[in-house]
Write a structure and sequence with these properties.
Mean pLDDT: 89
Number of strands: 12
CATH class of the largest domain: Alpha Beta
Largest sheet: 5 strands, parallel
Helix content: 40-55%
Strand content: 5-15%
Strand order of the largest sheet: 2-1-3-4-5
Shape: globular
Number of domains: 2
CATH topology of the largest domain: Rossmann fold
CATH superfamily of the largest domain: SGNH hydrolase
Structural class: alpha/beta
Oligomer: single chain
Distance between the termini: 63 Å
Radius of gyration: 25 Å
Length: about 525
């Protein structure tokens, strides 16, 4: 007799996360989920812990095919030598006896306790963090104990939630600068998946009841982040991602010449301003031609290609974004055939970008590179050519970008809150159009999309963010958008702000450019936005 275990998850989770659960379906038919943690997991300070503690919400969203249990203990620490080690609590023994298929660990806030350094009520705080040298070892010991009970258990380790500024010695700076890097080590050593609860709630003190404990709304944000990590899908009743990524938040856009051209950014802002007339949009788009995230440059390039890391920290410090949207890849293969070395450089660059953005307290959205089209390029060369460059690219260079896009799409939520695949939709559309017109192309040079290509990029981004747009003919839609009196105002605002902030942040591209102020630019932008607001409201 064949027993079927039903698992109500999205296709991404089914392929990437829960294959183990199908193979190890428990006798009762439910996938067991253990939520291990401290008072934040337990649900302390919530108005309605019974219904709103994050494990309760998580179980509600996952449904009856899951058995989600709360093993949180108020005040608990991960460290053995700290004042209240979880290892000594009955909840620990109960969690082990539960034999979970999925383990979510959120321990660390109480481990960060030490006197002083900005935390409220910390003068006489217990000093748990003096034992931090044991944090990785104690964490890995806990994971090993659960794997001994169930070798197939899927482990998720959480970055602790932020504190505003912390209390009782719980210290956000310690968590961000010291503890989170240690948890990254634990995840790498144990093949656990990271859930970034710190980023999910950062810059949102209104979601906390006492600077440490999330309130009912904050617990819902936690549950949504964990649900998304477990399933690869947003929870059933969660708002569209646009609500907490773009609306009423400063957004920094980074990328190469396609982003410096910026038409797609203008289209995104235009559609959002039309759809959400009461919302504020604070977009700073500073793409830079020739830039890479990999730090590579071809020999034939007239100057060393700029790398985003030359200016990234200045950009983060100057703009203080809540969300960063980055589109790299087109230049990162430096127009050569595929190679492990160049792939590794691209991957290392994306990882470094992710870590820098998260360290700045911002959310990261990655856009995969648009496709390369060899049709309009006269100088393409075969794989056995002596050299390659943007002037003489490898004829099948798009295969390299396809590899980059596939790797980005597989990144976990801990690396990027959202990965929007631009490559496949544009490549698919190109194929459809070329079947009707063999000479069709989005570009004149194989690299830079025309306005209709930028419009399709914007549609794709908005769809991924949960915003419906028109789906009609691109050229007809482009004419309609450009005829709307709102669009020229949005476009002018974006272009003016892009140029001003690009120079203010500063960059080196053959020569160094740096301005001293954006005050005049911001005033002009405010005037344009006021005109736009009259039209859209």
């Amino acid at each position: 007799m064949i027993r079927v275990c039903h698992i109500a998850v999205g296709r991404i989770a089914f392929l990437a996360v829960f294959l183990f659960a199908v193979a190890n379906c428990p006798a009762g038919g439910a996938v067991r989920v253990a939520c291990v943690g401290d008072s934040i997991t337990y649900g302390s300070r919530l108005q309605d812990r019974t219904n709103n503690a994050y494990p309760v919400r998580l179980g509600h969203w996952l449904g009856t095919d899951y058995d989600v249990r709360n093993f949180g203990v108020s005040g608990a620490t991960l460290l053995h030598q700290a004042n209240k080690p979880y290892f000594k609590e009955s909840a620990y023994a109960n969690a082990l006896a539960f034999h979970p298929d999925i383990l979510v660990i959120n321990l660390g806030a109480n481990d960060s306790k030490h006197p002083g350094d900005g935390s409220l009520d910390a003068t006489n705080a217990v000093d748990n963090w003096q034992y931090h040298a044991s944090y990785v070892g104690d964490y890995e010991e806990m994971i090993a104990a659960f794997r001994q009970r169930n070798p197939a258990v899927k482990v998720f380790v959480c970055f602790p939630t932020p504190d505003f500024p912390g209390r009782w010695g719980i210290n956000d700076r310690t968590i961000l600068e010291e503890m989170i890097p240690l948890i990254r080590t634990v995840a790498a050593d144990t093949r656990a998946t990271i859930i970034d609860l710190h980023a999910a709630l950062t810059n949102q003190p209104g979601l906390f009841s006492d600077t440490v404990h999330p309130n009912d709304a904050g617990a819902k944000v936690m549950a949504a982040a964990i649900y998304r990590s477990l399933t690869g899908e947003p929870p059933p009743d969660a708002p569209a991602p646009v609500a907490d990524l773009l609306l009423n938040r400063r957004v920094l856009w980074l990328g190469d010449s396609i982003t410096q051209d910026g038409k797609y950014v203008s289209f995104v802002q235009y559609y959002l301003e039309k759809k959400y007339p009461a919302a504020k949009f604070d977009f700073i788009s500073i793409g830079l031609a020739s830039e890479t995230v990999s730090g590579l440059s071809e020999r034939a390039h007239p100057f060393p290609r700029p790398c985003v890391f030359e200016r990234l920290q200045r950009a983060l410090d100057a703009t203080k974004p809540a969300t960063v949207i980055a589109c790299y890849g087109m230049n990162d293969g430096i127009y050569h055939p595929s190679s492990p070395e160049r792939m590794q450089a691209f991957q290392a660059g994306i990882h470094r970008l992710s870590h820098a953005v998260q360290a700045a307290g911002a959310q990261l959205i990655l856009l995969t590179p648009p496709p390369f089209d060899p049709l309009p390029v006269k100088g393409v060369v075969p794989a056995n050519a002596p050299d390659f460059s943007f002037m003489h690219p490898y004829t099948n260079y798009d295969s390299v970008l396809t590899e980059y896009a596939a790797w980005e799409r597989a990144l976990p939520v801990a690396e990027a809150r959202l990965v929007v695949d631009l490559h496949a939709p544009l490549a698919d559309y190109l194929g459809i159009q070329r079947a009707q017109n063999p000479r069709f192309s989005f570009t004149k040079d194989g690299i830079h999309p025309a306005a209709s290509g930028h419009l399709l990029m914007a549609r794709t981004i908005l769809t991924a963010l949960g915003v419906a747009t028109d789906t009609g003919d691109l050229d007809d839609t482009l004419k309609t958008v450009e005829a709307d009196p709102l669009f020229p105002l949005v476009r002018s605002e974006r272009e003016l702000r892009s140029g001003g902030w690009l120079a203010y942040v500063g960059y080196t591209r053959d020569k160094t450019v740096k301005s001293t102020s954006v005050t005049d630019v911001e005033q002009s932008v405010a005037d344009l936005q006021a005109q736009a607001d009259k039209l859209r409201r």
